Amino acid sequence: MTRPNIVFVLTDDHAAHALSCYGSAVTTTPQLDRLAAGGLRFTNAFCTNALCTPSRASILTGAYSHRNGVYTLDDNLDNRQTTFPRLLQQAGYQTAIVGKWHLGHGERHDPAGFDYWNVLPDQGEYVDPELIELGTRTRRTGYVTDLVTDIALDWLDRRDPDRPFLLMLHHKAPHSPWVPADRHRDLFADRPVPVPSTYDDDHAGRAEAARVAKIRVDTHLSAEELKAPVPAGLTWPEERLWKYQRFIADYLRCVAAVDECVGRVLDRLDDAGLADDTIVVYTSDQGFFLGDHGWFDKRFMYEESLRMPLLVRYPRALPAGETRDAMVLNVDFAPTLLDYAGVVRPPGLQGRSIRPVCERGDVDGWRDAFYYRYWEHLSAISVCAHYGVRTGRYKLIHYYGEGLGTTGSSDVSMAPEWELFDLQEDPLELANVYADPRYDDVRTDLTRLLYELKAEVGDDR
């Protein structure tokens, strides 16, 4: 079989429950639905550290944070490490990355393994952004989601048609401060966005870590994010709902631009006759709280933050319109794409190729649990460092309460705490059953499994 082309589209903070193909109650995403209808939709895709920079490093290296050295937002990726784009480049692929990099800049941190790169510095700007093209900084006029798509499609048109390619298109959106394109500024103006059922969650019975986190929609959104002063005369319940609508409408407006630009990419592949032989992947670096539990942001091991959207289309080899329920992790992306490209898997990758899952669905011996760790302890957002294990039914989380010297973490300690959730009986994670005697055996088994998986991935801190 001809080696496939690869288009890898990565967004920032796009929650799975903000795609209509995942049953979103708050928006529609017709172009992403089109991609899902032409390929596979994964219902259990998860990140291993729900934070932008660490997740991006894990996607590139196929390794957990403690292996690739990117623990927190303040860490940079050492670009001498083995990454799947570098291996594809060495195997004859032409490679490009356009958009958000967020892994550091300079000789040791700029994108490596790419024939062409044109990336946003740091977080990047939504309007008239500065970009770094092969080391040279320029400023472009326009809206960032449109611009990076323009640049990516221009590279696609200029590529060598006789060689396979990897194109990584990394959007800034829908990351804070959620600045929409002018064409979408009135989207949702005629109707309120539904409020999540857990918006009034008071976190009773949960760990203290949930109560001290500075990610409440009603309290911690900045003036830049709200973009308008709170109207005078509102009661507190009215103010809480006003802030939610300000946040969620702009977030979803940013998603609308991403959706349109995914459609542009799919159209270009169709027009160029490339669609059948191109793997298209759509995912995000992690999930996001959309008012769930009263929160915005991510970081926690709760489902809305932990879960990633994952759509994969490859008409030449994969069925259309099917779902896959197997547990898939962001560290699996690198070995999977190397597998499809016929590149030998190097040592050091910690993920598994999901090619058998893509092609056959159920696979004997596939993982039924995974290890997660968030390292950035009590930074500006005040989320406590924690690790945990998730199985098909249960989730055990340990807030160990120490920064351990990781970059950007606080040296303030918190008392260690535990949470246990029965996802079958409590899918919204409202009831911590860690101290419930009915779950004694479950707690014992999960604690053992947690430390087995921690050791298995080589995390000894």
Automatic annotation (TrEMBL):
Sulfatase N-terminal domain sequence ranges: 4-343
Keywords, comma-separated and alphabetical: Glycoprotein, Hydrolase, Signal
Superkingdom of origin: Bacteria
Record-linked InterPro entries: Alkaline_phosphatase_core_sf, Sulfatase_CS, Sulfatase_N
GO molecular function ontology, one term from the record: hydrolase activity
Pfam families to which the protein is assigned, alphabetical: Sulfatase
Family (UniProt): Belongs to the sulfatase family.
Protein name: Arylsulfatase A
Organism: Jiangella alkaliphila
